[in-house]
Design brief:
- The chain is an alpha/beta fold and 281 residues long.
- It has two domains: 202 residues, Vaccinia Virus protein VP39 (Rossmann fold, 3-Layer(aba) Sandwich), CATH 3.40.50; 63 residues, rRNA adenine dimethylase, C-terminal domain (Helicase, Ruva Protein, domain 3, Orthogonal Bundle).
- It contains twelve helices and nine strands.
- Helix 2 crosses helix 3, helix 9 packs across helix 10 and helix 9 crosses helix 12.
- The longest helix is centred in the C-terminal third of the chain and has 13 residues.
- The chain starts with 6 loop residues before the first helix and ends with a helix.
Length: 281
């Protein structure tokens, strides 16, 4: 369906289907016609590629993905949009809409059922309020996917794509870099959406790694990361002692064995530093 990025077209479409925006679902629909074609191309969608889209909205990005991909499965939580999508995607035979909460879906089963023999990527304009949980689910589930290309709040993009060990890095930075190689692609102004949010957005791509860049026990690694950043203003010795419920003397011994200064702060540590601490637990 043409002109899906036109504000007048979208308003008429939504009015006809009796749709009103839901703040609780973080609904902001793209009206900048240049954004979705770029996202679709950056996603790696191609003739033999399957795409999972999360939160298709009125189908602006979905339209672009359908033109490139072998098959698109779009997961939409809001059942009020199903009739809208039936109309806007009517010309495509390679798309399937699933009315579900992606956080509750068995994505391994979905991929097995919908994309047999195909490489798979994820492409989505994510609601701000649930950006990190969705990204971490996609990564932690160890799905057989090649890449995740998503639009997120600009500040979240900067944090996710910050170098580990830099001032901007946080627990999500470390977590993402454990599973993938992140990079920021381009920014998107707030005026590109209807209704316009209060902040700008950015599109990022996470290329999934075959193996984590450090070899250690995953559960212990993330326990250390969570504890380290739970009180990021404190030095690492104090935040680990509190977060892991381990005595200070024991923590100092662990840090010394891991060759990590006890007065360092969490954002100064590398992936290998976190792995070394996990190995000493």
């Amino acid at each position: 369906m043409n002109k899906l990025s036109d504000i007048g077209t979208i308003k008429e479409l939504l009015s006809r289907h009796g749709f009103t925006f839901s703040k609780s679902l973080g609904q902001n629909f793209l009206v900048n016609p240049s954004v979705c074609p770029r996202m679709a191309e950056y996603s790696g969608a191609g003739e033999n590629i399957g795409v999972i889209e999360i939160g298709p909205g009125v189908g602006v990005l979905t339209n672009e993905l359908c033109q490139l991909a072998g098959k698109v499965v779009a997961v939409e939580l809001d059942k009020r949009l199903l009739s809208v999508l039936d109309e806007t995607l009517a010309e495509y035979e390679n798309v399937k809409i699933i009315n579900a909460d992606v956080m509750e879906l068995d994505l391994h089963q979905l991929i097995a059922d919908e994309f047999p023999g195909m490489d798979v990527v994820v492409c989505a304009n994510l609601p701000y309020y649930i950006t990190s949980p969705i990204i971490m689910k996609l990564l932690e589930d160890r799905l057989p996917i090649r890449a995740i290309t998503v639009m997120v709040q600009k500040e979240a993009a900067q944090r996710i794509c910050a170098p580990v060990g830099s001032r901007m890095s946080g627990a999500v930075t470390v977590a993402v870099n454990y599973y993938a190689e992140p990079r920021q692609l381009f920014t998107v102004s707030a005026g590109s959406f209807m209704p316009a949010p209060k902040v700008d957005s950015a599109v990022i791509r996470l290329d999934i790694l075959d193996q984590p860049p450090v070899q250690t026990d995953t559960e212990k690694f993330f326990a250390v990361v969570k504890a380290a950043f739970s009180q990021r203003r404190k030095v690492i010795a104090n935040s680990l002692s509190s977060g892991l419920s381990v005595g200070k003397d024991r923590v100092l011994t662990i840090l010394e064995a891991a060759n990590v200064p006890s007065n360092a702060r969490a954002e100064q540590l590398s992936l290998q530093d976190f792995a070394n601490i996990a190995d000493q637990l």
